[in-house]
Design brief:
Blueprint (H helix, E strand, L loop, with lengths): L15 H19 L10 H20 L2 H14 L8
Helix pairs in contact: 1-2, 1-3, 2-3
């Protein structure tokens, strides 16, 4: 089930609104990855700008103080940085 990929590390249940937010984040991370250069090349301006937009989005969610969304964003951002997400 695709929703399992969006679960926070604690594997707790998520409300529908958070699940939809997670889908939007995954789509956005996919768009950022589309700009990623082959290894060894400099980062193009488009990727740098996308990274700034991602950080701005994380900042907005943090301002709203939704801990579950912040955990989800951390998972998405780790995926963007190509770091393995630790299973809880």
């Amino acid at each position: 089930m695709p929703d399992k990929a969006l679960a926070p590390p604690s594997c707790e249940e998520m409300p529908d609104a958070l699940r939809l937010s997670g889908l939007r984040v995954q789509t956005f991370v996919g768009q950022i990855r589309a700009f990623a250069p082959p290894s060894g090349e400099d980062t193009p301006d488009a990727l740098r700008l996308s990274d700034l937009r991602m950080q701005t989005y994380v900042g907005r969610i943090r301002q709203r103080r939704h801990p579950a969304k912040i955990r989800l964003m951390r998972c998405a951002y780790q995926a963007y940085e190509c770091k393995p997400v630790q299973a809880g």
